[in-house]
User: Fold Sigma 54 modulation/S30EA ribosomal protein C-terminal domain-containing protein from Actinosynnema mirum.
Amino acid sequence: MSALAVRTSGGVRERALTGVAELLGGVPGARATAARVRLTALGGGTALLQANAEVRGHRIRAQVAAPEADVAGLLRERVAAQVSRLDAPGAHRAWPGPDRAPVVTGRAGARRVARRKRVRAALCAPDAAALAMDLMDYDFHLFADSETGQDSVLYRVGPTGYRLARLEDTAPPALPVVVPLTTNVHPVPELTEAEAVRRLDETELPFRFFRQAGTRRGAVLYRRWDGDYGLLTSG
Assistant:
């Protein structure tokens, strides 16, 4: 097995690296050389541990937050769940998990957009968007809906469900969908970045999907684990 590319080393990170390496070593099609493990201290003895790899041509990402004594074992379990999702296109991952990274609260009005990223939204159907979202351990996925061509977002609702929001169309998809899916029936607002920040400040929602004023493309403002915001824009 090839050596893993590791960002950090020592203690918890070494245990996580060993567990992920052993797991991927037994997975046909896994590219161990594409894997890495990253640790971030959250305070109070809690750590945020993340692994990234490539399996059978798919990128996977697993992220857990837990006491440092437990986080390496939990990460291995999460990576195993991500890999198994490849064999069950109609399945779903449990959400939200007990080891989901906490979000800092109580900072309304003081948050800033700490990260901006423009993405080329992949053209795909909701089922493919759900698979990509689950493999990457995301709570939402920004993509271009293949049925309408519209910038869209898929996100989790409850422990088993998914919801689709398109920029304009609020009708359910015409083609069959395997995952349990509902459709957002509320209009997607057109906002500036500052307006989106203000609206998210006023709620407890994890993110806001909106049409970006000026470009009129889909964008998602979301809460980061450190309490600040991130912004994804289609382009």
